[in-house]
Amino acid sequence: MAANELLDQLHGVVPMLPTPFASDGSVDFAGCESLANFAEKHPAVALLGFGAECLTLTTEERLAVLRFFASARSAGRHIVAGCTAKTESEALRLVESANELGIHAVMVATPQQLELSEDAEHFFRRVIERLDETTLMVQDAPQWAGSPLGAETVRRLHTEFPEILRYAKPETVPYIDLMAELVRIPSLSVFAGLGGAGLLEALTLGATGVIPFSEAGVELARIFELPEQERGGRFADFLPLISFQFQSLEFAVQTSKALLGAQGVAITEMMRLPIRPMSDISRKFLLEHARRAHVLPS
User: Using one digit for the tens of pLDDT, what is the confidence trace for 256-269?
Assistant: First the structure.
């Protein structure tokens, strides 16, 4: 599929699938299969981002997960593959592999080892050199990765490589100013992140879509398709859940896995990110918020 065809198809809600782990901490591919089946309702899914504990996996583990989902994807479903890594060489290897597998888009933030913005721009030029049919989503998330990019860097790269750099996902904190700048770049599609917390503002500004946690994907897709004047009321039911989950990235991932289990996905709450088991009181509030948000049945 040519890159210009992809631009018309990658939009709306693209849920981030977590990485399932077995009790011994290894990647659970039976859990991956259950997740793939659960996500069949979505025309596109994202893998191996920060919400999938990407920096805790080895390169070989990430490539194995990517190959699994590339072979398991349903006809017509697109994959956004997270290729952010601690080092530049690891990120570039992941990008090259995703391109070889025919993955539709790679999502990349600056490696942790790069601390200067000018180094980040050179890094993304090297990423672009390794892509042909696969497109690029730049992720600006300095709280979890390397240096910030900023709108001007994205604008320069998009202007020079418009058929490759098609997407941006701003996750700086606060993110709304960067979102407002990015949506003004012609032909650049901008996706909201941070679990979908800023969906209403993003849509008001003109964002193309959102990459939330996967357990909320169906409900956010409903909100996304509502007329603008009806979104606020429905989103008000959802907001307590995402604000509760996003006390930290680690807690967000843990609660995401718990809710997927409650929805029938065959994965455990096993994590590699350091976090203690969820308390009974936290689980009680999580389930109450999920029911109010229409993520679980009342």
Answer: 999 999 999 999 99
Structure tokens at 168: 């941006």
Helix (H, G, I), strand (E, B) or coil at 8: coil
DSSP track, 147-210? S---HHHHHHHHHH-TTTEEEEEE--SS-HHHHHHHTTSTT-EEEE-GGGTTHHHHHHHT--EE
Distances in Å between the alpha carbon of 52 and those of 118, 225, 249, 292? 28, 26, 10, 25
pTM: 0.90
Torsion of CA 213, 2, 95, 193, to 10 degrees: -20
d(CA 92, CA 271): 26
Say how far apart CA 47 and CA 211 lie, in whole Å: 10
> Could you check whether the bond before residue 174 is cis, i.e. omega within 30 degrees of 0?
yes
CB atoms within 10 A of CB 77: 17
Q: Cβ atoms within 10 A of the Cβ of 71, count?
A: 9
In the chain, what are the domains? Answer: 3-225 (3.20.20.70)
**Residue spans of alpha helices (H) in the chain:** 3-7, 29-38, 59-72, 88-100, 117-129, 151-160, 176-182, 199-205, 217-225, 228-245, 249-262, 280-292
- Tell the residue number behind the tokens 């990658």, with chain if given: 10
- Round the CA-based radius of gyration of the chain to a whole number and report it: 18
Least confident of 34-38, 64-68, 191-195: 191-195
- Contact between 246 and 197 under an 8 Å Cβ cutoff? The reply is yes
Q: Count how many Cα atoms sit within 13 Å of the Cα of residue 154 in the half-sphere of its side chain.
A: 30
DSSP state of 112: T
Contact (Cβ atoms closer than 8 angstroms) between residue 42 and residue 75: no
Sheet holding 189-192, edge to edge: 12-13, 209-210, 189-192, 165-170, 135-140, 105-108, 78-82, 44-47
